[in-house]
Amino acid sequence: MNCKYFGMCASCTLFDKSYDEQLTFKLEREKERFSNFTTMDFDLIKSSDKNFRNRAEFRIWWEKDENGDEILSYAMNDFKKDILKIDSCQIVSAHIQEIMPKLLDLLMEDLILSYKLFSVEFLGSTTNDMLVTLIYHKKLDEQWNELAKQIEEKLNIKVMGRSRKQKIALSSDSINETLTINNQEFKFAYQEGGFTQPNTNVNIQMIEWVLNNIEDSSKDLCELYCGGGNFTIPLSTKFNKVLATEISKTSIKSALNNCDLNNTNKITFLRMSAEEFVQGLQEVRTFNRLKDINLKDYNFDAIFMDPPRSGLDNTTRNLAKDFENIIYISCNPETLHRDLEELTKTHEIVRFALFDQFAYTNHIESGVILKMIR
Ligand SMILES: C[S@@+](CC[C@H](N)C(=O)[O-])C[C@H]1O[C@@H](n2cnc3c(N)ncnc32)[C@H](O)[C@@H]1O
């Protein structure tokens, strides 16, 4: 990939390396970081070199041209956090790339659409479904609705409008995605505001890596930080039943809907923070949300965790140590390293992978499978 904004746009920080050089750099850095735990070979899951993001957000920049007309541009931050106007972005999917200039042209046709617009979010899918959220510093009215509906029709996309205390979904607030994982199709509806993995191709490979590196089990799986069921639903095929928890209401709603889309009845989703769930499981606190669930019905032999950047809190880390098998997906190697300091006192690492979700940045995701030491 060769982008004209390399060195200026702060979203791509590893612009001075070819894609293969970036991978080698990240692999060596992480092997060094985790060398006190393991010297095994890491599995390395690559991204596409360009057009890999199905989710993106851009600022909108306003200015007047020489005729006094208002001109809108997409914008990012430069390395000094100043505004950098851009007319394209190479890391977003081909579909987002195609829609970006067409959308801008339509927005500039009417001040009702363009006035006080300050940011645009794109959420795309491999099925070509797309949700575009227009975010404003003004109240959205009936006239805005009418014009935004015309954009939906002209571009064959879904449009939402957001402003302070306002959220308007014109035709829908979600998009449909179908992921083919180990030759099996899984259907998902991705909800606006819910967490979704940005690099679809790497996401598929992350799920496959987990599925292909664990045994089929006649016992149950406990999952924390489950989001909309991205891992939960494919992983449920490997277990007797699954209990999955997550803090976000939007994500749990989405997970329940995704279960229906895949006719899965093996999974129970609970809206609980990881910390609350540990208290419920260890019977130190009672929760109304657990009243219809008999936790003693579960015979867990594995825990799956994909926490946010902060990693595991103390109580969750301690709970994980009680499980025979731990599967840990991490978006922050620093907190993963901290958590492994504890987990490797009781468990040994049997598999380690790096997933390059965010090519052209320093960021890397990791996957670790651990087994209890006997
Ligand atoms: C990295 S995302 C992973 C989501 C999911 N595994 C996926 O692949 O889409 C982390 C998730 O943890 C949730 N979360 C954040 N803090 C939490 C907490 N304290 N307890 C439970 N879930 C939490 C977030 O809402 C988010 O959905």
Summarize the structure.
By secondary structure, the protein is α/β, with parallel strands linked by helices. The chain is built from 10 helices and 17 strands. The N and C termini lie far apart (48 Å).
Please tag this protein with its features.
alpha/beta; Rossmann fold; OB fold (Dihydrolipoamide Acetyltransferase, E2P); 28% helix; binds S-adenosylmethionine; tRNA binding; TrmA_MeTrfase
Written overview of the protein:
The protein has 374 residues and is of the alpha/beta class. It has two domains: 19-49 and 176-372, Rossmann fold; 55-173, OB fold (Dihydrolipoamide Acetyltransferase, E2P). Helices cover 28% and strands 29% of the residues. Strands 1-16-17-15-14-11-12-13 form an eight-stranded mixed β-sheet, with helices on both faces. A hairpin with a 5-residue loop joins strand 5 and strand 6. It is globular and about 75 Å long. The model has no long low-confidence stretch (mean pLDDT 96). Residues 195, 197, 225-228, 230-231, 246-248, 251, 273-274, 306-308, 331 line the site of S-adenosylmethionine.
Per DSSP E runs of 2 or more residues, the count of β-strands stands at 17
Q: Count the helices. How many?
A: 10
| Major sheet size, sense and barrel closure | 8 strands, mixed
The strands making up the biggest β-sheet line up spatially as 1-16-17-15-14-11-12-13
Q: What would the CATH topology of the largest domain be?
A: Rossmann fold
Low-confidence stretches: none
Mean pLDDT: 96
Tell me the CATH architecture of the largest domain: 3-Layer(aba) Sandwich
